[in-house]
Amino acid sequence: MLDMDYSPLLLSLKVAAISTFVVFVAGVFIAYMLAKRDFFGKSIVEALFLLPLVLPPTVVGFGLLILFGKKGWIGSWLLEWFDFQIVFTWIGAVIASIVVSFPLMYQSAAAAFESLDERLSNAARTMGASEWRVFWFIVFPLAWPGLLAGLVLSFARGLGEFGATLMLAGYIPGRTDTIPMAIYFAVESGQMENATFWVVMISTFGFSLILWVNWWSKRNIRRFTKS
Amino acid sequence: MLHVEITKQLAHFEMNIHFEMRNEIIVLVGPSGSGKTTILDTIAGLAHPDHGLILSNECTFFTTGEKPMPARERKIGYLFQDYALFPHMTVEKNIWFGVRNSERNERHEMIRQLLEVLGIKHLLQKYPHQISGGEKQRVALARALSTQPSVLLLDEPLSALDKETRKQCQDELLRLHDMWKIPFIIVTHDHAEAERLGDRIIYLEQGQITDEKRKRSIVSTY
């Protein structure tokens, strides 16, 4: 057995789980609100949401430093009022993870809501359902396969986030060393066995996750469409 | 009584519709895009007129310059084209969806009767994709009536059915109207169907009423 420090696994799971939760709630809410409305500049807003998907992670990290760095717009305010610092903490890793995985959740949720038949929601409305009830009992369950795909993609993205995390949270063993960081710094210091272990682990995990989602979605779609 | 007075600018024409009805069956007939479904949608509160007045008994659904009453408060039964049954719910859950928890006990007997009349009791545990077109139509009717609506709107309710099932369902609609005694507005392309079902037939073209026929005496056809 390798002489391993398993803290990167726990930290990665913690960071990915928290960021996925935030991204899921925000992504679903924002995508649903935007799906229901048409307004001037909607395309610009959507393009902004998707921007982290096409930008190099270092650019995202740079932007986050401008916002959350000690002298950043939000960072300096947090430091002054709450004596709280985001850079070089695991919370920084969560924020980086949120920013890079949000577009995946938003895109999946928007596609899921757009593909729904509006008449089903309208049928529920004519039957006396409030917007809240329409969302929970009609929209959410029918969009769930798409939302789940977004959820899993976001989780996987959060788990694998490297560039922006390195810039915002840095590499502090035991505090901000997620699996991708551990891989990078293991290679840097010539610990190839450790690096291989983490590479195999994260690859197997990602592969299993995608397999499961594909299987689950197909099974669920079949349930409502075939006898 | 239902009073409908609608002015609405649509993509290619302005719709101007005015009619009043009692507890009778009005059939709207017209080519595709003549505004038939838009009339149903504005009565149901899923679309709003630019100007006009929509009243159901003492209730104002819409009047120019005021906030329209939301669809959920209008007590309208709406049978959509292709039925719009919730695919992830069983027939039973579809039918009970519009019934509030506080009303469940008092609605029980009415829904039991409805299931009996429509002959769909044996379908309760099935999902919509597991039942035939005619059965879907009956389930959708039961669902629309389960909320005890004051008006029933039916958008091409029989168009997806074969000839034989269609005739049976026409009989069922007439029987239900006799039982419920509320205004029914039915949209159809089929002139023979309109003659069979309608106490009044309103012909539409480009958002205008071009003709109206009224049956001299209202005689049940079964």
Which features characterize this protein?
heterodimer, A: 227 residues, mainly alpha, MetI-like fold, B: 222 residues, alpha/beta, Rossmann fold, six-stranded mixed sheet, disordered C terminus
Molecular structure report:
The complex is a heterodimer of chains A (227) and B (222). Chain A is mostly helical. Chain A has a single domain (7-225), classed as MetI-like (MetI-like fold, Orthogonal Bundle). Chain A is built from 10 helices and no strands. Chain A has helices spanning 7-36, 42-54, 57-68, 73-82, 90-114, 118-126, 131-160, 163-169, 179-188, 192-225. The radius of gyration of chain A is 20 Å and the shape is globular. The mean pLDDT of chain A is 89. Chain B is an alpha/beta fold. Chain B has one domain: 3-Layer(aba) Sandwich (Rossmann fold). Chain B has 6 helices and 10 strands, in the order E-E-E-H-E-E-E-H-H-H-E-H-E-H-E-E. In chain B, the strands form 2 sheets. In chain B, strands 6-7-8-3-9-10 form a 6-stranded mixed sheet, with helices on both faces. Chain B has a 4-stranded antiparallel sheet with strand order 2-1-4-5, covered by helices on one side. In chain B, strand 9 and strand 10 (208-214) form a beta hairpin. In chain B, helix 3 runs antiparallel to helix 4. The longest helix of chain B has 18 residues, at 163-180. Chain B is globular, with a radius of gyration of 17 Å. Chain B starts with a strand and ends in an 8-residue tail after the last strand. Chains A and B meet through helix 6, helix 7 and helix 10 of A and strand 6 of B.
